[in-house]
Amino acid sequence: GDSVTQMEGPVTLSEEAFLTINCTYTATGYPSLFWYVQYPGEGLQLLLKATKADDKGSNKGFEATYRKETTSFHLEKGSVQVSDSAVYFCALSLRSGNTPLVFGKGTRLSVIA
Amino acid sequence: NAGVTQTPKFQVLKTGQSMTLQCAQDMNHEYMSWYRQDPGMGLRLIHYSVGAGITDQGEVPNGYNVSRSTTEDFPLRLLSAAPSQTSVYFCASTGGVAGSLYEQYFGPGTRLTVT
Q: Which stretches of chain B score pLDDT less than 50?
């Protein structure tokens, strides 16, 4: 079945460090890919998305590129801030119909000053 | 638009009690779903609905009931609460056009403790 695998956390970084959170997927169709962020005590918010191969999603300094050849959608940010501390979820959606999103298990990021 | 709203925000139940978690959306989305979030488990799908009058089970449906009488509302019922149902519950609705991108919008969550 369809699945998303993301690196296990927690990830702890110093402010201004470079961030990579790995995400790979398995899908029977041609999925759209998402990164969601969950700040402490809140629901999930869409961070960025990509709908086809080589698309780059970007938002708030975060980027991820849809790599069909490696079935990956790694999240990157060049310089993290304390306010980026959150849980990040990679997810996929098949466009063939109203099917549920498939989520990874989440990666907790802590950024220390 | 209010988006997706959930009530209550917090709830404590005793084992065996019943309750309904409310979820509403004002975006006219056909697709709605309920997830539970537990530490180290990510989000697990409980039930979902592709439109009024239609519901289906997700990955972890046992102990939960849903109904969808209107497009806007999708309540989740716990018939006899158990400590294993202690979790954070998220409702979501999905919007998009068939054949193109679907985006999922989440409510703020309900934190449920069963003692």
A: 99
Please enumerate in sequence order all residues whose Cβ is within 8 A of that of B23, keeping only pairs 6 or more positions apart, or say none: B4, B5, B6, B32, B34, B73, B74, B75, B76, B91, B107
- Residue identified by tokens 């530490």 is B39
Task: Confirm or reject contact between A27 and chain B (CB < 8 A).
Answer: no
Q: Is A84 exposed, middle or buried (0-12, 13-18, 19+ CB in 10 A)?
A: buried
Chain A interface, best mutation among B10, B35, B66, B104, by max A CB count within 10 A: B104
Q: Rounded to an integer, what distance in angstroms lies between the CA atom of residue A82 and that of residue A103?
A: 25
- For chain A, what is the mean pLDDT? 91
Measured in angstroms, the CA of A54 and the nearest CA of chain B are apart by 16
Give me the pLDDT at residue B41, please.
74
Put simply, whether B106 touches A (Cβ < 8 Å) is yes
Cβ partners under 8 Å of residue A26, min gap 6: A1, A2, A3, A4, A5, A71
